[in-house]
Design a protein that fits this description.
This protein has three helices and seven strands. It is of the alpha+beta class and 150 residues long. A four-stranded antiparallel β-sheet has the order 1-2-3-4, with no helix packed on it. A three-stranded antiparallel β-sheet has the order 5-6-7, covered by helices on one side.
Length: 150
């Protein structure tokens, strides 16, 4: 069986965002940054409270609560822009090239015109289905991105 498809910049971006969302280190970093932003606002509020500047205290305490809701939105956009730049820089020569996937009994062959990769089915560690993509995680690292047929 043969499957032909084109991968776009958005496909590579979705792949990178999925990988980032599954990494524990990225999750820890997001939690840490949210914690430190809120802690900073609360400490500034306490500082102003000690100096009996109650309006400033309320502003900083309110900012701490608002940052709990809005800072994660900011971080989501920050990471999306960061990974978008990464994808453009590292995968720009792979965009919109026809990729052909051939399935055999014991392995499959992926070719994109210049490169051909032969991967044994035993090397597949995990199969992940996203909205528009299927990711085949390989034991040695990396993943094969397959665009779902429309």
């Amino acid at each position: 069986m043969n499957l032909k498809y084109f991968l776009t910049e958005e496909d590579y971006l979705n792949h990178q965002l999925y990988l980032a969302s599954t990494k524990e280190s990225v999750r820890k970093q997001r939690r840490k940054s949210i914690f430190w932003i809120c802690t900073l606002f609360v400490l500034l509020g306490v500082l102003f409270y000690d100096r009996e500047k109650y309006v400033e205290t309320y502003i900083f305490i309110g900012s701490a609560f608002l940052s709990l809701f809005f800072y994660p939105i900011y971080l989501r956009n920050y990471y999306k822009n960061y990974y978008n730049k990464y994808v453009v820089e590292n995968y720009k020569y792979r965009f919109n090239k026809e990729t052909e996937l051939k399935f055999e009994e014991e392995f499959f062959i992926s070719s994109d015109g210049n490169n051909e990769t032969k991967i044994s089915l035993k090397e597949i560690e995990e199969i992940v289905e996203l909205k528009e993509l299927i990711l085949l995680k390989i034991k040695l690292g990396g993943a094969l991105i397959i665009k779902k047929p429309v």
